[in-house]
Amino acid sequence: MSRHRAHCTKRVAANIAAIAAVLAAGCGSDDDGNPGPRISATTGVAADIARQIAGPDAQVEQVIPDSASPHDFSLSAQDRAELEDSALLVSNGADLETGIPFEDVDVPEFAFADHAGELLAFGGSGEEDHAEEEEGDHGDDDPHLWMDPTRVAEAVPALGEAMAEADPDHAAGYRARANDYVAQLGGLDAEVERTLAAVPQGDRMLVTSHDALAYFADRYGFQVVATAFPASGPEAEASAASIQETEEAIAASGVPAVFAEETDDPQVLEQISERTGVEIVGGLLVETPGEAGSYVEMMRRDAELIAGALTAPG
Description:
This protein is of the alpha/beta class and 314 residues long. It contains ten helices and eight strands. Helix 6 (171-196) packs parallel to helix 10. The longest helix has 32 residues, at 2-33. The termini are far apart.
C-alpha cells in the first residue's frame, strides 16, 4: 500500500505541475495577446503603417472606421476615452482629420505630414503644375501625401522614434522594424515605377474623381489634368462648372479613362462617361487600404489599375 500511495502521490504531484504549467502558459498567452501600450491611429493607412512598426510590442487601434470619411469624422465619447488612454496618437496631419480636436486631447502625437518633406498645395497636379504653384499662392496643403511611398518612407524612422519614446522597453524593436519597413517601401516604389513604365510618356495624364493623386503624379511623372469633384470630404460635390471643365479636359487630352473611388456619386460619373465616351475605372483606393489589406498592397493595386487603363492593348 505504501508503494501504491507513493505512486499516487507522484501522479498527483505531476498533475499539479502540469496544471500549473498550463495556467502559466495561459497567462503568458494573455500577455502576448495584449502586449505593450495602446497606440491609436486615425485612418486605415496610418493604422496599417503603424502596425508594421509596432509589431508584437504594442496594440494599434484604428480611430476612424473605413466606412467614415477622415475629413468629417467626429469623436464619440467612447472614441475620446479610448484615445486618451493611448500612449501615442498617429495621424496623417495636414488637416486631413479635421473632426478630431488634437489640441484638446492630452496624448503625444505623431503626424506623418510633419516628417514627409515639403507638402504640395491642394490643386497641385504633377510636376508642371507644382512648379507653377511654387511661384504663386500655395493655398492649403494637400494631405494625401501617402500616395507617394517615398514620403512615407521619409517619415517612418521618426515614427519608430516616437514609439520608442512612448515605450522605451521595446525601443530597439520599433527602430529595427522601422528600418525594415523603409526598405520595404523602397522596394514598393521601384515596383510601382516598373508597373507604370508601360504607360508612354505622352499618355501620362490622369482624370480623377477627386483631387487625391497629386503626390502620386508628382512622384511618377504624371499630370492630373482634371478632377470631377474638386475637393475631398463632405463638401466634395461636383458643380456644373467642374463637370464642364472635366469634360473639356477629357476632350483636349484624349485620356481613355476617368479613375474613380468606390464612394463616388455614380450618376455624375455616368453622365461624364455618356457625354465623352471615356470609361469610368472604379476601385481606386485612396483613403484606406480596404479590401487590399495593407498600404503596400493598396499602392500596388492602384498602380496596376492605372497602368492597365492607360496602356493601349497589344
